[in-house]
Prior knowledge:
Immunoglobulin-like, 3 domains, 7-stranded mixed sheet, mainly beta, binds CU-O-CU linkage
Amino acid sequence: GRLEKFVDELPDMPVLRGYGVAEGGNLVAGELTVGMHDTMWKFHRDLPATRVFAYGASKETATVPGPTIVAMKGVPTRVTWTNHLPPRHILPWDRSLATARLGNGTGVPTVAHLHGGVQQSTSDGHSMAWFTSGFAATGPHFSSPAYEYPNQQLPGNLWYHDHAMGLTRVNILAGLLGAYRVVDPATEAPLGLPSGAEFDRDLVLFDRDFMRDGALFMNATGNNPDVHPQWQPEYFGAVVVANGKAWPFLRVRRRRYRFRILNASNARFFRLSLSGGLRFVHVGSDSVYLARPVPTEGFLLAPSEMADVIVDFAGAKHDAVTLRSDAPAPYPGDPGEKADTVAVMKFVVASKPEHDPSTVPATLMPRYPKPDAREAVVTRHIAMYEYTKNGTDEPTHLYLNGAAYTDPVTETPREGTSELWEVINLTDDNHPLHVHLAVFTVLKQRSLRRVDEFRDCMRGSASGGAGGRNDAVACGMQRHLAGGRRHVVPRQERGWKNVFKVRPSTVATLLVRFKPLEESSATASGKSGGFPFDVTAGPGYVYHCHVSIKQRKPLLKSQAWSSFTC
Ligand code: C2O
């Protein structure tokens, strides 16, 4: 049977306060313990409860998504992450993976990463810093489960999610994700945006498939089982889940609401719009406020991307407004094929007009640093390339400039500087590129010229060699980069971001900032232009595509690109 839409109310996730209040009202560092629990979650009225892995302060309070952690700018949040997961995963995982073998028998390897967070790499959730239940087994970069998030970054939207090598995909599908915000009342309250729990909400979206008995379904048979039993590139579910409920509804009043929308899917893009002609007004993108609000009729949100939008229901012509998506899966899909529009959720709008004290000011955060390409000290060319060995159907290998994840680090930026990254996408897929620690601005994106020739050269398989190992320079890169058609970067994506959708056969020019976005933190740390901690300590930081590929070592795509250390 089919699940009926709009029968469950959109829940709010529990809130964990990431700071303490001392006697006298001073704010002090927050101490939290967040566990990963094996528990049950009800995704829909008519679906039996689903076994999930969920974050929570306790097993009884664990939810999918996990609790929203609210941190205060400038006040550290310390989280001790604990793993209470059983030896067996609830989803199929590939035993040929190194991580799986290491954790085997002792539990499910997990490690939490705060996405968008500016923190020391020992607290960054390195994919090899995983640990199993009771720390029975730990990854080579594990040092401590007690993480410190300094929150010395501009206010905005982050999220935390599992990040374990080879298991990120299944751990997130099982439920290990949640929202995190850094708030700064001093600069945010004067904006007058909709505020308070009723009018300022997280909207965490993802897709899942379910069995009749409520179990999460993930196809365990590969596209080509003769080659690999489990290998298949992406996960798409037919059910759209918002804040842990399938196609929920929310009763709203005739006024403005703020939605901090996160696409927490493994691979599904959402192209969101509202029925009845209602618009979005974007106030933030990923973790940072925009300088000015940007109105749109709809927008595309890649896995791990965030949009912070205001919707004014005062203009609703009907009492029902649907939030819907018409992005094909996989994205961008076949150009000729029209995507089905899918419902995400429904708003039930009150009929009574009312006074709305909130506003959207004409400027939001005008004093944030502006991107300045002249600051760049280095230009890097980063070519994403997928290689499948000639004459086989084996799983795809992913390379950055011909190097695999396990190869030595090639991007070694200096703290306190900015760099230009020309990110060249030679694959057929749109790759939401995510950079840890840094933020970037997308300066432009252009089509590559004679991309087939470029790819053929990169493949370098004519010699029957390893393949995919030629670098972009050897392949006469400049000929392919020059003079291609320009693609517009949508206005709401021109601020400081940490994820950008790099289209197939294009080059995106990013100004990447390896220093705090706020100059004043330099003084706070006593270092000039630096982060408020030692970025050289620990295992370093990664950048990667945020589409989680299924199975096979070391091809978890969300980790497969090269990594950098500062
Ligand atoms: Cu959303 Cu490496 O993370």
